[in-house]
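User: Could you write out the 3D structure of this protein bound to N-carbamoyl-L-aspartate? I've included everything you need below.
Assistant: Certainly. Input first, then the structure.
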Amino acid sequence: MKLRHVTSINDLTRDEIETVLFLADAFLKQLGDPEDPNRIGKSTHLCRGSIMATLFYEPSTRTRLSFEGAMSRLGGNVISSANSAASSAAKGESLADTVRMASAYADLLVIRHPREGAATVAAQYAGVPVINAGDGAHEHPTQTLCDLFAIRREKGALQGLTVAVLGDLKGGRTVHSLVYALARFGAHIVTMPASGMELPRHVALRLRHEFGSIFLPSKQLSALHPLATGAYLPPGATAAPQKIDVLYVTRFQKERGAPSLLDYPVVNADFLSPPAFHEALVLHPLPRVGELAPAFDTDRRAGYFRQASLGMPVRMALTALLLDAAPDQSLEPSEGGFCQKSETRRETSLACSNPNCITRDSQEIPNTEPKFRHDPAGPGALRCFYCEHEVT
Ligand code: NCD
């Protein structure tokens, strides 16, 4: 039986994402706090006897606390390695060895790592399911599940909604997982990058060639907002969006090596005064560091703290599903996933061109054989198996 891992939002089919959101909703209904409709206030015993290991090689507050809180609410136990300086990684231990060993201690691994593709390496060596809690600038699939749940609860169906993503679209992994999911659910995506922080080329290529999005350039969006550099519409759509239903704000990812921080947009009541934003739900994966004014928190459009609260039922749902402990619901025990995963090619003579790919980490080289997939961007195009960058 193949294990299920969630290293990318694209490891889950649309139906499976629906199952996670359905179960999250059921948890909120059964275990919700009567005083706060977005808060889990009670526990269950669904995962009694199971152990989650959280392996965090990068700082985290929300993600780790909500995973660990979710497992506690499910009646399970948590073991944690949250400080890479205090773990064996500092002695030179490879990720492959760490996850092999952690698989003997726990039933589910949740991993965060500064390198793109790290969760995929972990999944290759783990004997239990792996959840990616953020790998470098690659993806953060469980944040996207929280984002989709928040949008659904406040705006209804995702199909046809216009979601603008603003800020560091280059280094922000939450944005990468989110745009893939939005494209797959038929939403319109508008990009509003800070200067020099556009979506990475491989993400933009995938939106167009793999998810069938139609690209509209900025000149067709000038009536919408001066910061809009492009829009990705669902297949068949042609009209430029006229208003923004959701504004997804992100911080500058200073830890991802971007050179400078010039003209970073600041979202406040003034920024949101044009009619296009009149009904916009404002979300942010948090933490914020100046790009979203605290004075805006009392505005009816501010949804980010409710969004953070929803991390709990969503992570409970995914955890219960991966441990096959959810009543009447399960994920197929197969590789699954939305992507028609193309054949993998071993190319020992080729190296991934992304310097932050896990395959470029000297500690990991012996366990990360160079592997590539065919890229739908064109005949002969290849994509790194681990970090998913196109290979030039
Ligand atoms: C995000 C992350 O770690 O990518 N935080 C989170 O998990 N909510 C966003 C960020 O750090 O900017």
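The pocket of N-carbamoyl-L-aspartate is lined by residues 62-63, 134, 140, 143, 173-174, 250-251, 285-286 (CB under 6 Å).
User: Perfect, thank you.
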